[in-house]
């Protein structure tokens, strides 16, 4: 009986340590996304990041032009997350949007100098 209690205690402690280590591996990053224009941009980036390995969640604030991303540090890193946003067609901090992806975006999601934009006036499409 004493051995059983000891085994159960060790299992509980081991589980607690593992969970604590996993929580430490979660990173929350704020990335400047200056080229997001509207709700459609927000949805595109969030949908794209859902497919990125290691990303737990993402929230795009197109009014403030900031994307907040939570991810597991042992599965991805901030540069991969920025590259994923760039591959969706948007600038991410110092990573420029993939030109082909940017060109494929709807007109409303493009930069104002490229005939797009509208920002707050075009919230839904």
From TrEMBL:
UniProtKB keywords: Signal
Signal peptide segment: 1-20
Coiled-coil annotated residue ranges, if any: none
Matching Gene3D superfamilies: 3.30.70.100
One Pfam family matching this protein: HMA
Domain of life the protein comes from: Bacteria
Protein name, entry field: Heavy metal transporter
Keyword Nucleotide-binding in annotation: no
Domain annotation HMA: ranges: 27-93
Sample GO molecular function, one term: metal ion binding
């Amino acid at each position: 009986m004493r051995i059983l209690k000891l085994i159960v205690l060790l299992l509980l402690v081991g589980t607690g340590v593992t969970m604590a280590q996993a929580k430490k591996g979660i990173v929350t990053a704020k990335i400047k996304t200056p080229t997001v224009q509207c709700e459609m941009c927000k949805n595109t980036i969030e949908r794209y990041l859902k497919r990125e390995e290691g990303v737990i969640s993402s929230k795009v604030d197109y009014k403030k032009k900031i994307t907040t991303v939570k991810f597991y540090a042992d599965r991805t890193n901030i540069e991969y997350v920025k590259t994923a946003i760039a591959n969706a067609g948007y600038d991410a901090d110092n990573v420029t949007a993939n030109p082909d992806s940017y060109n494929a975006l709807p007109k409303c999601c493009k930069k104002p100098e490229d005939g797009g934009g509208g920002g707050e006036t075009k919230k839904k499409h």
